[in-house]
Amino acid sequence: MIIKKPVITTTINEITIQFPIESSRGKEFLWYRIDKNYQDFISDQCDAAVVALLIPAMEMDENIYIEGAISERLYRHLTDPCQKLLKEIMPFLNSIRIETKDFSHLNHNANGICAGFSAGIDSFCLLNDY
Questions:
Q1: Half-sphere exposure of 91 (CA within 13 A, CB side)
Q2: Measured between alpha carbons, how far is 43 from 87 in angstroms, rounded to an integer?
Q3: Burial code of 84-107, b = ≥16 C-beta within 10 A, e = fewer?
Q4: For the purposes of burial, counting CB atoms within 10 Å of the CB of 129, is it exposed (0-12), middle (13-18) or buried (19 or more)?
Q5: Nearest C-alpha neighbor of 35 from the set 10, 14, 11, 8
Q6: How many Å is the Cα radius of gyration of the chain?
Q7: Are strands 2-3 and 14-23 parallel, antiparallel or unpaired?
Q8: 31 Cβ neighbours under 8 A, 6+ residues apart
């Protein structure tokens, strides 16, 4: 599976970020569309695409080749610990390689985090920590 650099387009009210994807299933796009009010949260890195496509790639037993930048910290976690955990939960998954030539070392210095809240222990732990 090849994840190419994102293409970001803007309209009056929305921003669309599209990642061209090539896999054994053909050429497709993974895309996200958000309200323009959140444009400061858009990144030209491939982090979102790799996270979204990790399980499908593991299921198809396809290595991931990233043509754009990815966070070095995310890369380290997705190449080993995350895959081991996913295989514990879903034994039918395969271990795959993730390869890139471009690591991002950006520090966004964010004032907060964004997360879902299910009212489970993890959500309350997140609230406690942040």
A1: 0
A2: 29
A3: eebeeeeeebeebebebeebbeee
A4: exposed
A5: 14
A6: 16
A7: antiparallel
A8: 16, 17, 18, 19
Decide: 95 and 59 in contact? Cβ < 8 Å.
no
Tokens 């190419």, located at residue: 4
Enter the DSSP assignment of 68.
S
Let me know how long the chain is.
130
Is the pTM higher than 0.85? no
What are the tens digits of pLDDT across the range 47-77? 999 999 999 999 999 999 999 999 988 999 9
| Rounded Cα–Cα distance for residues 46 and 71 (Å) | 8
- Helix, strand and coil content of the chain, in percent to the nearest 5, comes to 35, 30, 35
The string of pLDDT tens digits covering residues 90-106 is: 999 999 999 998 888 76
Between CA 110 and CA 117 the distance in angstroms is 19
